[in-house]
User: Fold this.
Amino acid sequence: MADITVDKLNQREKIHMMAGSTFWSFGDVERLSLPALKTSDASNGIRQQYKDEGYSSKVGSIPAICYPSLCACGCSFDAEMVYEMGRALGEECRSRGIAVLLGPGINIKRNPLCGRNFEYISEDPVLSGKLGAAFINGVQSVGVAACLKHFALNNQETRRTNSNSVADGKTMWEVYLRNFEIAVKEGRPWVIMGAYNKLNGIYCCENSWLLNDILRNEWGFDGVTVSDWGGVNDIIRSFNNGLDVEMPGGVNNDEDHIEKCANTGELKQEAMDRAAADILRLSERTRKVSEEYKYEEAEHLDIARKVAESSFVLLKNDGDMLPIKKDAKILVVGELAKRPRYQGHGSGKVKLSYAETPWASLKGYFPNIRFEPGYSLAVRYEDDKAERAYEACGSADIVLFFAGQLENGETEGFDRSDMKLPSEQNSLIKAVARRNKNTVVIVQGGSPVEMLWRSEVGAVLMCYFSGSCFGSALLNILNGTVSPSGKLAETFPDRLSDVPSYEIYPAYGNAVYKEGCEVGYRFYNKYGIDTAYPFGFGLSYTGFEFYDISAEMDGDKIKVRCSVKNSGRMSGKAVLQIYIKEEQSKEACELAAFGKYFLEAGEEKTVETEINTKYVSRYDKNGNACVFEKGSYEICAGYSSVQMAVKTVLNVNESIIYPFEADSMGKIYFEGEKVSDGITLNTTLREFEHKKIMKPVIGAVKMISRKIGTDLVPAGRVSELVMDTPLRHIPMGTNGAINLEHVKKAVKAVNAILGKRGGGFAGKTGEKNEKQ
Assistant:
């Protein structure tokens, strides 16, 4: 492949490489025997379909190991472990001939309600960027490309395909781009995926400031830029402004249109050559995926289990209720113990080749254990189940209550409406805890939930989505084989109304980031707002002490040394969190570095970590730069973002300036009131559901979609998604049965009818308009 260069490709071959070959592949050139580059979701396992077709494939996907979701991995604070998980996923891709793994997703968790938070790492850019880089390095260590996503400011699922994220330079550079900068510079991903949304008025997949000025020129990215599936608004504008590949391929039937634009000069020659060169480079980097490759499944399952163990967060443990003695009389309550939620719902949902249930693992170890369902996972309340659980809990030494969202509670394509667990679970937890104070609540889910009962129970263990080995990993924590070492990668607010973006999230048009950099712990800590559990918090069965911290400048880096001691009675892993703040600043201290270290009981060691001053620098709009200002800095080792163990003061004698070659923030386009006399490819069905001429069509769509459930969306929610999907997504939704040319003709015909009848549209962008 190395001898295939751009000059050996004809124009049609370049266009074919850019337009995508099939739903899940791109980049092939038959004449030169250049194979297609196969892609697959996602970051917690391989979701490869038996047939290369759309999401609604009737034959489904090939079973695979399900690893902990990235929401769990973030809580590990363990870059080495995340690297190993990435490597294992890369090996599984190699064994299946997959060249590109579509992950990791590292978007900042701006609000706990984001329906895709389970796929993301953290509310903090340093933690997200560093662990994202570790994942990328692991995947690419075996010759498979990692695809970093979703670039950029894709922080809500509501109307995600046409929402407009509006943010200033400081907000972007200090939070929402910093995570991507770290991952790009330290992980060197071979592919990066453009997001669905607009950024400051321009779709991300046609945003030259993002794809060229920042990604390529500022950060030195030399890989392939690919659209999210259906993320292209204008294909020619996208290619000219930095996109290499439109996906999915094979559904729009638009190669003739692209070639026509190339012949007229509308599609620039340099854009085609750039894309072809990038794709050829990726083909060379992933050339080994065509070779036969085998991996040890037992080793990979062991990695999945260890990542889960490292990610569980012990939030409460009054009276050392955990770990549990083997002869204890245990009552397990909750259907989720037998039917756990291994992962969230969405395009990356893995068909499990191996699955452990908590109940089977616990029953196999503890001799005196029984089960009561307590509640139903269906959307209905059953008094008899709750009553039986309540009666049984009185005679148990300890109650393990399994709590979590229902199956469709957290899914791609939708934002949650609240942070609540199902009401029947909350009521039963309170009732059981009143009767038996030794109640342990084990929570499954991808995001924070309200825990209004937390003062009434004895212990709380947050497990997030833990993958195939959930059962054995949980057993090892509960019986004390492994000490919990997870730390929250996001704040658990007391209530939803405390969230800084509460009143403006989600947005229905302009998603304005009014809270700026005050996202997550930066907000709560700055204003002294109490939380249920702070960022970085997590208990252990053993104890750790941090002392003798020192810091010194080393060029543009800060070398930090700190001593750590395991002062408890069992071995365990200590998470060292290093925070920094200017001594006189009113801002909250922010995470600057971290590390995870195993220590035997009584063991002490001195560890060293490094702060990159670029990653804690401040945006200077006047200087077109980020600056790490001279002055005095507090550098602390913390047990969480609100509990510092020890600190030192570092005097910086000279400012370090990181200038931007490009405009440091681009332009901001607020979309004001719009009046349209017709529909466009970006019109959604919801925008004209009240038009008389369309009512039969809308009714039929709703009726059919209510009965459909897919890997992407649970049954019952397809209708909601379809109504908010732009017309340009019809080819993808029909797997090419209706292509883009068909849609364009239909739009033209409908506009002609509406024009004759005077049935134009009037709607506003930037706010919810129920009368459209």
Summary: The longest helix spans residues 79-96. Residues 253 and 739 are 6 Å apart (CA to CA). DSSP finds 20 helices and 30 strands in the chain. Confidence is low (pLDDT under 50) at residues 761-772.
